[in-house]
């Protein structure tokens, strides 16, 4: 569904190649400045490449018009403006032309209690949930038909534990409908619990592409993240990660 080959963006990405297919839940991990956000913007078709190419469904991304892309792929950016005095319902309707939320979104994001409140009067976590809903609603028909590319830049930032898991459970369910979801974040435990493909970035390059963190040792992770990492095995067989400074 998605492939990219030898893409370069000056000071951001360095000869990056990879691929992902429909139904995968890809987690992009790495330190600040490693190129995670730049990679998502490039895959969204919103960042000019110095070299390389990106293909979506067998077609070069450059051959899609922005209106075409807007119907099949969405990008929720890390930095969101929330200065508008529009209500949450008005914001969501503006971006999706839909009235009301699909049940799946409401169960995961729990927006109904503040749909009529102004966006600029919400907490940071509430605003984050609104913008995630906005991004998904933009391409909801494609999501329902299993033809969507969903790119989320640190979607769990500012969310409490409950809503982090509700969100990632929703995204995993969306993947089960044959959509491709790519997220970046900084939580190894969420990655271990929900990812079925993991890209580890360092200095603008994908240095590891793996299906589970079980397949990589703590020393490699520590070298990528620049801190100590130790783990225990949970009763379900998952690694539980703890980070620390040496």
What's the helix and strand layout?
Blueprint: E1 2-9, E2 13-20, E3 25-29, H1 36-43, E4 51-56, E5 59-60, H2 66-72, E6 73-76, H3 88-96, H4 103-109, H5 124-138, H6 140-144, E7 149-153, H7 161-176, E8 180-184, H8 188-194, E9 197-202, E10 205-210, H9 218-225, E11 228-233, E12 239-244
Parallel strand pairs: 3-8, 3-9, 6-7, 7-8
Antiparallel strand pairs: 1-2, 1-4, 4-5, 9-10, 11-12
Helix pairs in contact: 3-5, 4-7
Keywords:
alpha/beta; 246 residues; 9 helices; four-stranded antiparallel β-sheet; Rossmann fold; six-stranded mixed β-sheet
Account of the 3D structure:
It is globular and about 50 Å long. β11 and β12 form a beta hairpin. Strands 6-7-8-3-9-10 form a six-stranded mixed β-sheet, sandwiched between helices. A four-stranded antiparallel β-sheet has the order 2-1-4-5, covered by helices on one side. The chain has a single domain (2-216), classed as Rossmann fold, CATH 3.40.50. The relative contact order is 0.18. α4 packs antiparallel against α7. The chain has helices at 36-43, 66-72, 88-96, 103-109, 124-138, 140-144, 161-176, 188-194, 218-225; strands spanning 2-9, 13-20, 25-29, 51-56, 59-60, 73-76, 149-153, 180-184, 197-202, 205-210, 228-233, 239-244. It is an alpha/beta fold and 246 residues long. 33% of the residues lie in helices and 27% in strands.
């Amino acid at each position: 569904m998605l492939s990219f080959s030898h893409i370069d963006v000056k000071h951001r990405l360095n000869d990056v190649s990879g691929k992902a297919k429909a139904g995968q839940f890809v987690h992009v991990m790495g330190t600040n400045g490693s190129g995670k956000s730049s990679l998502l913007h490039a895959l969204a078709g919103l960042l000019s490449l110095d070299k390389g190419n990106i293909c979506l469904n067998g077609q070069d991304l450059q051959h899609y018009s922005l209106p075409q892309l807007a119907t099949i792929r969405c990008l929720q950016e890390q930095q969101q403006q929330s200065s508008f005095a529009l209500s949450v319902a008005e914001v969501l309707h503006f971006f999706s032309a839909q009235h009301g939320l699909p049940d799946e979104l409401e169960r995961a994001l729990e927006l109904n209690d503040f749909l009529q409140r102004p966006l600029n009067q919400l907490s940071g976590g509430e605003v984050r949930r609104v913008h995630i809903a906005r991004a998904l609603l933009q391409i909801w028909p494609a999501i329902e038909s299993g033809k969507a590319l969903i790119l989320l830049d640190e979607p769990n930032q500012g969310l409490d534990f409950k809503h982090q898991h509700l969100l990632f459970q929703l995204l995993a369910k969306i993947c089960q409908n044959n959509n491709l979801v790519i997220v970046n974040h900084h939580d190894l435990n969420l990655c271990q619990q929900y990812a079925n493909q993991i890209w580890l970035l360092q200095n603008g390059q994908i240095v590891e592409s793996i299906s589970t963190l079980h397949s990589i040792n703590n020393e490699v992770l520590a070298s990528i993240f620049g801190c100590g990492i130790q783990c225990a095995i949970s009763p379900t067989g998952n690694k539980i990660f703890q980070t620390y400074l040496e």
